[in-house]
């Protein structure tokens, strides 16, 4: 009935194949390979193994690591002088975070992510970085809300152990999703491998919503009845810290949800931006909020108690509550991190009655000026503070 020329059929089928290869992933509504926000995740510098994404994360972390290294000697002296486990815990977490981030970037630049072994190693390192960052994030919150005034080694160990187990469960879930059920959004067809996708956009969306809710709850706590039962942090910087993370997690959840449900490249751009900010600025934010003032103090205006020394012998979980008069003489270093110390300095502490640890006072000087620290220098320091031995 119909006369169809074989050549015309062959030409028509050939042109259909050609058109289909020229339309890149039309079903997804976006060019996954060519869009800048996906290209930046795997694009290498001049065909080398150094990816632009790794450089973006490495440079700020490397600069912050250099800053830590330059100030390490002074920080060590101050930590020795206070004998405070909470300062040591925070400082240790900060160092671990920045070192692991730098190592991950360097290893990613040396392995071939397109290879099976290299791709798995890269994802394992990503998950490891997330483990340390999440442990720090949860520890800061728990110390502030529940254990902010416990300044003993046993309480610090319990908090770090609990947060480590929670972070481990989270990162195992994320790593399993990355290795077993990777998100197709992060698949690179031209190289046939997956870049790290944070466990998939649905997982990232739910995770971001949970953390947004937690930080928003922290921000409204001072206006609830719970403020009467909890010794909430009074320092404004703590709430600025919580508000910053709440904003970032909210924006991140919007981007992840937008990408997951619409496949719009704008969602991927938002996820990339929030991920870069978190991976480069979170650790410096923790240092600036909770440690910079302590390491930068130039005079012993804050009088620390000798609870840390008692803790070495008894490991006692004595609590120092700022609103109870009977405990004001046992102010702990965790109060300095989470509470407004001007309340204490104005009325509660007198330099003529409160002893100052001579090592702490010495640590406020230049490190080079106290390398010859001796008993004579200790006696001289005590005399300058109004004490006779």
UniProtKB/TrEMBL annotation:
<keyword id="KW-0812">Transmembrane</keyword>
<feature type="transmembrane region" description="Helical">
    <location>
        <begin position="201"/>
        <end position="226"/>
    </location>
</feature>
<dbReference type="GO" id="GO:0005886">
    <property type="term" value="C:plasma membrane"/>
</dbReference>
<keyword id="KW-0472">Membrane</keyword>
<feature type="transmembrane region" description="Helical">
    <location>
        <begin position="238"/>
        <end position="259"/>
    </location>
</feature>
<feature type="transmembrane region" description="Helical">
    <location>
        <begin position="84"/>
        <end position="104"/>
    </location>
</feature>
<feature type="transmembrane region" description="Helical">
    <location>
        <begin position="265"/>
        <end position="287"/>
    </location>
</feature>
<dbReference type="InterPro" id="IPR018781">
    <property type="entry name" value="TPRA1/CAND2/CAND8"/>
</dbReference>
<comment type="similarity">
    <text>Belongs to the UPF0359 family.</text>
</comment>
<dbReference type="Pfam" id="PF10160">
    <property type="entry name" value="Tmemb_40"/>
</dbReference>
<dbReference type="GO" id="GO:0004930">
    <property type="term" value="F:G protein-coupled receptor activity"/>
</dbReference>
<feature type="transmembrane region" description="Helical">
    <location>
        <begin position="159"/>
        <end position="181"/>
    </location>
</feature>
<feature type="transmembrane region" description="Helical">
    <location>
        <begin position="52"/>
        <end position="72"/>
    </location>
</feature>
<keyword id="KW-1133">Transmembrane helix</keyword>
<feature type="transmembrane region" description="Helical">
    <location>
        <begin position="124"/>
        <end position="147"/>
    </location>
</feature>
<protein>
    <recommendedName>
        <fullName>Transmembrane protein adipocyte-associated 1 homolog</fullName>
    </recommendedName>
</protein>
């Amino acid at each position: 009935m119909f006369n169809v020329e074989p050549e015309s059929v062959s030409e028509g089928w050939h042109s259909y194949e050609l058109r289909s290869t020229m339309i890149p992933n039309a079903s997804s509504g976006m060019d996954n390979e060519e869009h800048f926000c996906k290209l930046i995740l795997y694009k290498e510098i001049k065909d080398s193994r150094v990816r632009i994404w790794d450089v973006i994360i490495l440079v700020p972390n490397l600069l912050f690591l250099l800053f830590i290294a330059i100030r390490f000697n002074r920080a060590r002296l101050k930590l020795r002088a206070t004998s405070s486990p909470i300062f040591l815990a925070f400082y240790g977490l900060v160092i671990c975070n920045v070192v692991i981030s730098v190592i991950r970037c360097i290893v990613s630049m040396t392995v071939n992510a397109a290879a099976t072994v290299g791709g798995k190693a890269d994802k394992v390192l990503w998950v490891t970085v997330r483990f340390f960052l999440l442990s720090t994030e949860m520890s800061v919150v728990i110390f502030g809300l529940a254990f902010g005034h416990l300044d003993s080694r046993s309480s610090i160990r319990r908090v770090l152990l609990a947060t480590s187990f929670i972070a481990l469960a989270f990162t195992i879930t994320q790593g399993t999703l990355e290795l077993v059920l990777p998100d197709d959004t992060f698949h690179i067809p031209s190289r046939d491998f997956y870049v790290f996708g944070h466990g998939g956009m649905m997982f990232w969306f739910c995770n971001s919503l949970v953390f947004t809710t937690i930080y928003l709850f922290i921000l409204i706590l001072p206006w609830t009845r719970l403020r009467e039962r909890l010794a909430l942090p009074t320092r404004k910087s703590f709430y600025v810290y919580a508000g910053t993370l709440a904003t970032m997690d909210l924006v991140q959840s919007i981007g992840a949800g937008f990408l997951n449900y619409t496949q719009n490249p704008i969602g991927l751009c938002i996820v990339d931006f929030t991920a870069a900010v978190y991976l480069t600025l979170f650790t410096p934010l923790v240092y600036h909020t909770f440690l910079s003032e302590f390491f930068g103090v130039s005079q012993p205006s804050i009088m620390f108690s000798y609870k840390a020394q008692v803790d070495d012998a008894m490991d006692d979980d004595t609590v120092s509550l700022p609103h109870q008069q009977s405990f004001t003489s046992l102010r702990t270093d965790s109060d300095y991190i989470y509470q407004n110390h001007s309340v204490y300095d104005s009325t509660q502490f007198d330099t003529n009655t409160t002893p100052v640890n001579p090592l702490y006072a010495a640590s406020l000087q230049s490190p080079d000026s106290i390398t010859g620290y001796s008993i004579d220098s200790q006696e001289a320091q005590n005399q300058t503070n109004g004490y006779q031995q």
